[in-house]
């Protein structure tokens, strides 16, 4: 048994490295090969309210996405929680609501928000050029991110099997 | 010279950067607004079958994918010299009305309401939809989510997918709706009409009945005197999907009017070295620089512009709201920029009513959804009103229908010069020598930007949020003296 987990690969596959989350999710799905019935893998391009709806009803959510942090090498992977993001509730977005706000809103509305949201953020090299291929450093990172997500799911499964003390 | 910049924290969605340069005495010398633009779009489309364009262009943007889908769809009809049957046109407009409902609700409640319900200089930790929900009641937040979702569900039902529709094909649409679905949409639309009425009432109660907020809306910080553009039907009523594109001048008089295919004779684009994004202007008047007033060659393309450029709304409740809008604000055209939020709600009500009207027409469930193209493809232009401004797609193809040239003028690009000027004006009016530049003040500068509901989106999603902004203040020597939001 695992906690009901949804893996969400976010990205746009026609914007070069921006597709990394989507490619990673596809590979995670292939690697898991249905061995964990409580784990669902989806690909998506959404944010804000729509992402809130995608997360509702799952105990744990793992997001994989491209990021462009300052002073960071392309291909670096960050394993973070929403509260680690440098954006916070106090920063509103131009179009909709940011992730921490979405989570909080979902909680207040009793939408069954996940207890845990884990983010694997891959530093992109280029997300502005139209293209359907990842740049090399990001491609390598994509494979590492897949390993990390699969490990994470496997570890969680083992921990649940051994009971709460494990 | 001092410099203030409002900068994104992380990329993801296309980001803008606002820089405000202060003079030695602390007053605002100038303001620039920069955005990175997608690269290689024309090249990406080149060689592609033109009927693929509606599907592909929808993917460049997760904020208004439906607008790109339909503008490209109309352009492709024109490329193939084919006129879709009435059912297809009605279905496209029905789909698009649902898109408007969904988008305008999200913008108003997530981005506009916090400034007014909570106050422009309120605690930023509460100046968001959570604060709004706390103040006006949590059930309202539930209603916001519900109706935004209805807009999205109708798009899925009709267009196959909400974010990336795969539906518009040369001469019509790939699938129709059943009678049962039509009746379902009628009920959904009724609920949207009620929620739109509620939203206008909320604006009335919270903003118009609050003198302090009304004063902000009417203040000279947020105003601009340019021409206005909007698409109108045969009665000169606002229409989002088809019609003539009408331009009115600073006095509200029609000075230009064109059909989709004629856009190049009416709109030109100016280039500045500091920005990849161009600055469109009225060809008839010419580029007069970043100036407003009677000689300006600039136009705005926003909900406010669409109302200003039209003679009214095509549906009864929206028409009543339109009349109240102008009687309250002192006649046409309205030049107060923050009234754009109110105009957006008038449009929300129109979109909901139009959705209901179209869904109530049994013809939308007819199976006659496509005219098969037979002519040799050549060239075509398609224009719709994207939520954030008029959207133009133009394609040329070879005789096999492969794209040889593509040109797009997207919604926000129309407003590029007006946004820059609105920011500069607000900064100049608000930031004064000797006055501390605080977070509340900078939020009020940002409000001048936000009201345009700008979209420089390149990726269709973003993890932390979309296009967060950071404000940096640099002194006269270029040293960072104030940073907000990092």
Q: Would you mind describing this structure in some detail?
A:
The complex is a heterodimer of chains A (166) and B (486). Chain A is an alpha/beta fold. Chain A has four helices and five strands; from the N terminus they run βαβαββαβα. A five-stranded mixed sheet of chain A has the order 2-1-3-5-4, covered by helices on one side. In chain A, β1 (5-10), α1 (20-32) and β2 (39-44) form a beta-alpha-beta unit. Chain A is globular and about 40 Å long. Chain B is α+β, with helices and mostly antiparallel strands and 486 residues long. Chain B is built from 14 helices and 16 strands. Chain B has helices spanning 41-45, 53-57, 65-79, 86-118, 129-136, 138-159, 179-208, 211-218, 303-309, 316-329, 339-359, 411-414, 416-430, 439-450, and strands at 2-7, 17-22, 28-34, 168-169, 172-173, 227-232, 244-248, 254-258, 267-270, 279-282, 299-300, 379-386, 389-397, 403-409, 470-474, 480-484. In chain B, the strands form five sheets. Chain B has a five-stranded antiparallel sheet with strand order 3-2-1-15-16, with helices on one face. The longest helix of chain B has 33 residues, at 86-118. Mean pLDDT of chain B is 88; it is low at 6-14 and 458-468. The interface between A and B is large, with 49 and 62 residues.
């Amino acid at each position: 048994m695992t906690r009901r987990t949804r893996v969400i690969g976010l990205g746009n596959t026609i914007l070069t490295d921006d597709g990394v989350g989507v490619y990673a999710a596809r590979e995670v799905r292939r690697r898991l090969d249905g061995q964990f019935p409580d784990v669902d893998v989806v690909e998506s391009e959404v944010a804000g309210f729509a992402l809130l709806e995608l997360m509702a009803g799952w105990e744990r959510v793992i997001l994989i996405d491209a990021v462009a942090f300052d002073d960071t090498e392309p291909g670096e992977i960050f394993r973070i929680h929403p509260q680690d993001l440098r954006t916070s509730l106090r920063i509103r977005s131009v179009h909709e609501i940011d992730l921490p706000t979405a989570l909080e809103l979902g909680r207040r509305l009793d939408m069954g928000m996940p207890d845990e949201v884990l983010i694997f953020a891959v530093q992109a090299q280029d997300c502005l050029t139209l293209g359907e291929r990842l740049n090399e450093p990001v491609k390598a990172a994509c494979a590492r991110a897949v390993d990390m997500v699969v490990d994470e799911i496997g570890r969680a499964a083992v921990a649940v099997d051994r009971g709460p003390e494990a | 010279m001092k410099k203030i910049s409002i900068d994104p924290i992380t990329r993801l969605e296309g980001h803008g950067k606002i820089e405000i340069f202060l003079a030695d005495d602390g007053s605002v010398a100038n303001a620039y607004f920069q955005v990175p633009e997608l690269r290689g779009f024309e090249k990406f489309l080149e060689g592609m079958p033109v009927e693929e364009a509606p599907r592909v262009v929808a993917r460049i943007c997760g904020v208004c994918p439906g607008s790109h889908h339909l503008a490209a769809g109309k352009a492709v009809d024109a490329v193939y010299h084919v006129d879709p049957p009435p059912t297809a046109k009605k279905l496209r407009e029905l789909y698009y009305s649902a898109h408007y409902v969904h988008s305008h609700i999200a913008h108003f409640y997530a981005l506009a309401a916090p400034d007014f319900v909570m106050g422009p200089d309120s605690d930023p930790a509460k100046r968001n939809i959570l604060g709004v929900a706390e103040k006006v009641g949590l059930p309202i937040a539930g209603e916001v989510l519900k109706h935004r979702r209805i807009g999205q569900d109708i798009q899925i039902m009709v267009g196959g997918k909400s974010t990336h529709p795969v539906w518009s094909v040369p001469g019509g649409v790939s699938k129709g709706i059943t009678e049962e679905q039509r009746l379902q949409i009628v009920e959904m639309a009724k609920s949207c009409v009620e929620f739109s009425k509620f939203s206008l009432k909320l604006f009335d109660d919270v903003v118009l009945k609050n003198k302090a907020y009304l004063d902000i809306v009417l203040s000279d910080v947020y105003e601009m005197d340019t021409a206005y553009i909007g698409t109108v039907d045969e009665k000169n009523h606002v229409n989002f999907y088809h019609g003539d594109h009408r331009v009115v001048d600073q006095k509200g008089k029609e000075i230009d009017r064109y059909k989709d295919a004629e856009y190049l004779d009416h709109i030109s684009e100016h280039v500045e070295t500091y920005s990849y994004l161009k600055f469109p202007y009225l060809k008839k008047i010419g580029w007069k620089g970043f100036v407003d007033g009677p000689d300006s060659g600039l136009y705005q393309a926003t909900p406010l512009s669409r109302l200003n450029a039209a003679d009214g709304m095509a549906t009864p409740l929206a028409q009543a709201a339109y009349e109240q809008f102008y009687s309250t604000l002192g006649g046409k055209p309205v030049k107060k920029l923050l009234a754009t939020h109110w105009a957006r709600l008038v449009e929300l009500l129109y979109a909901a009513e139009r959705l209901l009207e179209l869904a109530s027409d049994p013809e939308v469930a007819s199976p006659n959804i496509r005219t098969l193209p037979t002519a040799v493809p050549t060239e075509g232009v398609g224009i719709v009103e994207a939520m954030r401004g008029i959207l133009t797609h133009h394609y040329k193809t070879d005789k096999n229908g492969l794209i040889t040239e593509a040109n797009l003028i997207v919604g926000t690009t129309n407003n590029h010069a007006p946004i820059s000027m609105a920011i500069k004006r607000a900064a100049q009016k608000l930031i004064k020598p000797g006055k501390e530049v605080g977070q509340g003040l900078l939020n009020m500068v940002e409000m001048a930007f936000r009201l345009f509901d700008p979209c420089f989106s390149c990726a269709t999603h973003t993890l932390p949020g979309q296009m967060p902004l950071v404000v940096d203040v640099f002194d006269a020597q270029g040293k960072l003296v104030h940073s907000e939001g990092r």
